[in-house]
């Protein structure tokens, strides 16, 4: 019996996402579920510790979006992790908006759809891969105080100002920690 | 040519999803005009994805969640598949153009036909304002429309103000602001802007309420916290 070649986990996930897009492959969705749902849940629990029902709801919503939108994913413009992160971010915003006493009339669906890529550009593609590697390596070397602030902003959903209040630090200190971190990761080069 | 961009802090909070929605609306509108900030956002999202990926994984049994998810997917697939038009207001390009201005995508949830359809309130012969919405206890989101060559009225406010130029241009002692420019002023800033003489100026403005921001997530989450922890108070 012929064996399927063994793929690297991230290559397997790329194969899975196109299997969903092309032939509604539920086994592929099942593998993505196992990989991403725990991450999405901890992303939600970071913002709201203990809110397991909310985390379950958002995780399912993201999996539904993956199922429905797999055909819109473009590997040349973003990694699969980045795509799923943006889906989780938007689903978390939408959930909080709809389930809050202070319901907002602003529909977040309209706000994060504008980053449209020009046609695939081999130069940009290569640059994107370099950005990926630099960020990955740089993150592991960041001083803990800088990483702490990044985690507050990205995972706990705090603004710079809220992070400052929570850590009892001046806003200026938070800003400079984020700037230093972004600079080290070569994400931000001062204009 | 865009000269005024959101600060890196605002862009980071936007990419992370922690920026209040009213402010995100201004950033989103700016991005439609600004390739430079779009590239910056892409990098910031890549960072978010790495932090997301490193998130510690809990050892919780998720098989029940998975079973019910796939049961739903198999039994009610129609409910889960969204039609492309769902939730989207119809956009008619012909009508969109009738007052010669293209409405940014980010504002189409509020403006379906054109700026003229809005409920403009005349505050002076040269100055009109249309409220898009008021966040309860939060920000006020509005459009301002000022005739060519006119002064903007002096106003006082205690919170920050974000202005995004949609059409035309205005200037103050610090510079000239054109279509797509993103201007963030704190309450202490005193300025008296003048619209350039060649055309009227339409701006999107977000004014933080005079009350102290207690934090967007905090405000949104208070009712949730009560719901999930009914005995914690
Ligand atoms: Zn910009």
Automatic annotation (TrEMBL), chain A:
Keywords: Sigma factor, Transcription, Transcription regulation. GO terms for molecular function: DNA binding; sigma factor activity. The keyword Signal does not apply. GO terms for biological process: DNA-templated transcription initiation. It comes from the Bacteria. The keyword DNA damage does not apply. Residues 133-185 form the RNA polymerase sigma factor 70 region 4 type domain. It holds the Pfam family Sigma70_r4_2. Residues 32-101 form the RNA polymerase sigma-70 region domain. NCBIfam families: sigma70-ECF. Belongs to the sigma-70 factor family. ECF subfamily. This is Sigma-70 family RNA polymerase sigma factor.
Automatic annotation (TrEMBL), chain B:
Pfam families: Cupin_7 (PF12973). It comes from Marinomonas hwangdonensis. The lineage of its organism: Bacteria, Pseudomonadati, Pseudomonadota, Gammaproteobacteria, Oceanospirillales. Residues 34-56 form the C2H2-type domain. NCBIfam families: anti_sig_ChrR. InterPro entries: Anti-sigma_ChrR (IPR012807), Anti_sigma_zinc_sf (IPR041916), ChrR-like_cupin_dom (IPR025979), RmlC-like_jellyroll (IPR014710), RmlC_Cupin_sf (IPR011051), Znf_C2H2_type (IPR013087). It comes from the Bacteria. This is Anti-sigma factor.
